[in-house]
Amino acid sequence: MNQSMKKQLGIWMDFRTAEIIQRPNVPAEPVLIDSEIEEVQPGGGSRSNVPYGPMDKRSDKKILERRRNQIHHYFEKIMEEIEDADEIFLFGPGEAKSLFLQYIRELKQFKPYILSIITEGKMTDNQKNAYVRSFYESLE
Q1: How many angstroms separate the CA atoms of 130 and 91, rounded?
Q2: Residue range of the domain that includes 74
Q3: How many Cα atoms within 13 Å fall on the side-chain side of residue 118?
Q4: Rounded distance, CA 123 to CA 15, Å?
Q5: CATH code: domain of residue 72
Q6: Is the pTM of this model over 0.90?
Q7: How many CB atoms within 10 Å of residue 51?
Q8: Taking the mean position of all CA atoms in its chain, how far away is CA 28?
Q9: Domain contains 44
Q10: Does 50 fall in a domain?
Q11: Which of 6, 8, 38, 32 is nearest to 19 (CA)?
Q12: Is residue 86, in this structure, part of any structural domain at all?
């Protein structure tokens, strides 16, 4: 199969959104997936009105479990969009892409070949498109 026949994707992602960019850019618009992950900091709670009374402690475990479930759901939505790809590479800031790679490795049936994982900061849409195009061109 020659390069032009492969479905090649670049996925820019963080914990807020994922942009799936196909090369060549057909369709030109990237697929956007909103994570719907709540940004909640574990910890906190408030004291009761009784001096030295118990704290109304929010359960950190529950909050973390909920976040883990939201991340899992986010990754499932991305998987639905990329399952027919031949090659993908992940880029973006932070740890979302590393966790996604971990998630993928735990799946038994995953067809796309992961070429690379690259840390990149903020980028415009044009920069992301150019980055995906130049990434794959550099492999030819």
Answers
A1: 13
A2: 3-37+58-137
A3: 15
A4: 15
A5: 3.30.420.60
A6: no
A7: 6
A8: 20
A9: no
A10: no
A11: 32
A12: yes
Handedness of CA 83, 81, 123, 36 (dihedral sign): negative
Count the domains in the chain. Answer: 1
Q: Per the domain annotation, does 15 fall within a domain?
A: yes
Distance (Å, rounded) from C-alpha 43 to C-alpha 59? 8
Report the alpha-carbon distance of residue 59 to residue 78 in Å, rounded: 29
Closest CA to 57 of 49, 48, 66, 65: 48
CA 113/CA 16 separation, integer angstroms = 24
Helix/strand/coil (H, E, C) string of 13-43? ECCCEEEEEEECCCCCCCEEEECCCCCCCCC
Q: How many residues does the chain have?
A: 140
One-character DSSP codes across 85-108 = -SEEEEEESSSHHHHHHHHHHH-S
CA distance 31 to 25: 11
Nearest alpha carbon to residue 13 among 135, 139, 133, 128: 128
Render pLDDT for 4-62 as a digit per residue (tens, 0 to 9): 578 999 999 999 999 999 987 665 688 999 999 887 665 555 555 666 655 555 678 88
Q: Which residues contact 76 (CB under 8 A, 6 or more apart)?
A: none
